[in-house]
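User: My collaborator sent over this chain with a note saying "see what the structure looks like." That's all I know about it. Can you take a look?
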Amino acid sequence: MRFIDSNVFLYAIVKPKKALNEKVVERKKIAKEILLRIEKGSNYCGAFE
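Assistant: Without extra context I'll predict from the sequence alone. Here is the result:
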């Protein structure tokens, strides 16, 4: 069994109310990619680069 941190869901799903800096935009992009891999059933467990 693998676990996923809730921040991944928050970054991927929650829509911001104000403008975001570049770091947060990049984290949101990575979080969305992680969720897409989970939906596809990928077993890859890579760390943030």
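A starting point for your reply to your collaborator: The longest helix spans residues 22-40.
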